Amino acid sequence: MMSSATPGSASRPRHLVVITVDEMRGDCLGANELNPDIRTPHMDHLAARGVNLTRHFTCFPKCVPARISMMTGRYAHTDGFRTIQQHLPADRPNVLKTLLDLGFETAVFGLNHVWEHLFEASHTPPTLAAGQQGLRIDHHSWTAAFRDIYDDCQADAPDPAIWRDRVDLDRPLTSDTDYRGDVDWHWSSEAVTRQAIRMLTEVRDPDRRLYLQVNLSPPHPPYAAPQPWYARYDPDSIEPFPHDLPKGAPLSLRAQREHRTGLHPDAGLLRRMQAVYYAMIERVDEQVGRIVQAIEDQGLLGDTVVLFASDHGDFAGQYGLPEKWDTTFSDCLTHVPCVIAGGGLPSGRCVASLTEHTDLAVTLLGLLGLEPDWHIHGGDLRPLLSGEIDAVRDAVFAEGGHEAAMRDRFDGTPRQDGKQRTYQQCPEAMARARMVRTADHKLVVRETGDHELYDLTTDRWEMNNRFGDPALAAAQAELMERLLRWCLQTDPDRPHQNLVSA
Q1: DSSP assigned state of 314
Q2: Which residue in 67, 158, 307, 316 is a FRET match for 339, CA 20 to 30 A apart?
Q3: Which residues contact 32 (CB under 8 A, 6 or more apart)?
Q4: Which is nearest to 32 in space by CA: 342, 442, 381, 309?
Q5: Per-residue pLDDT reduced to its tens digit, 161-206
Q6: Interior CA angle at 318 toward 316 and 320, to 5°?
């Protein structure tokens, strides 16, 4: 049941703003102090105004299942989410539905990566067939008060069919690859930024509580950055990510190298990819800063919980690869930035204990004085944010991949895209896999074998797979038991059973 706390009472913040970026690595937030080259002054400023969860992890290295877990507080496999084609049905409990039912004014700008029939997943207004039902939110990127911003930002953009091919790196790298790009990729994070600012400054109803979600697409590939950000990172001056495959690399990495970027990608091109990835982050940092500034200018920060996070990370040249892969759980894909600020939370607090996406739903609702009325897998971070406790968990979990029958249904049509070609040529690279990570070790277990074990105390970049190493036998056994217990605890629990007896 919902908490008896009165929504909007004087002791609680009234509003919730969720700002997400797509595919940003945790070591690319300047405030995390893991990267000597990246510059994120606005995100760092937000971290200084709130609590920075420096060791926060996604539970799925792909957009839709990861974002669904952020909204439900549940692991994707429990509810059967494992592809980007799925979305959360309107009747499934989640943060947005909870606040909508309580009368919050609601706005979601940018790509819809979570809710079924909220609006289309690309850049078209909602179109519902007969009998389809979606959440009826108040505002989104194509409602009347905001559509003109989208149209204005797109008016001067080149045809995606012309410029996408110039910047898409999901194919063997060549020396003529152009990373500059004349516009923000997709249908413009600039439009989303302006829409969010208009919502905060002109459109919102000051008498209603507000839920605002801003989904910014960069730094998701294709890798392209507009000027002046493109010129700010010299590929020859940055510290490169490791380009070699790990010793004992699993099939998921080896197959990607063969079919996505080639067995021996050019190191100079990989450094350029990384530099432009940084430029994309600094560009979106500027946009995050403008949105947060609008919150402050309206005098709302003290009464608003602000979450900034990424759904998952990106290879960005690490291991000689672009983008991400469902069954790879390296920290470059699973460790993500996460800051919770405003709403009376402490300022300048850094939390180094492990947290993950399933912890967010119960925490955000709790900060608003609410309690979810559905089963949550994650832990409530509020005592951690306030400093009352040091940790809510000692391990994080992630998952991905498809069962054998699903792999057999993959469309075998010849593809030019390296990600699809990898699946086509090597289906077992997408075999179901699950990860458990503690502060010191990481274990990945796959349906088809090909397991991984890393000692993170001596191997930050996960370059030496030590599964089966007698020296790590005790750690391997402990992690295996942890993973088994996690699977048992989070096995599918739908449909919900109201009548329970022995």
Answers
A1: -
A2: 316
A3: 26, 52, 54, 337
A4: 309
A5: 433 333 344 444 444 445 555 444 445 798 999 999 999 999 999 9
A6: 100
CB 427 within 8 A of CB 420: no
Q: What angle, rounded to 10 degrees, do the helices at 267-297 and 189-198 form? A: 10
Q: Are 311 and 66 in contact (CB under 8 A)?
A: yes
- Distance (Å, rounded) from C-alpha 359 to C-alpha 396? 10
Torsion over CA: 258, 262, 267, 273 (sign): negative
Q: Is the peptide bond before 65 cis (omega within 30 degrees of 0)?
A: no
How many other CB atoms sit within 10 Å of the CB of residue 266? 17
> What is the tens place of the pLDDT at every residue in 422-443?
999 999 999 999 999 999 999 9
Q: Which residues neighbour 379 within 8 Å (Cβ) at sequence distance 6 or greater?
A: 359, 362, 392, 393
pTM: 0.92
Q: Tell me 203's DSSP state.
A: I
Name residue 356's amino acid: E
Query: Do the strands 396-400 and 139-140 form a parallel or antiparallel pair, or are they unpaired?
Result: unpaired
Contact criterion met (CB below 8 Å) for 147 and 191:
no
60 in Cβ contact with 312 (< 8 Å): yes
Give the model confidence (pLDDT) of 378-420 as tens digits: 999 999 999 999 999 999 999 999 999 999 988 767 666 778 8
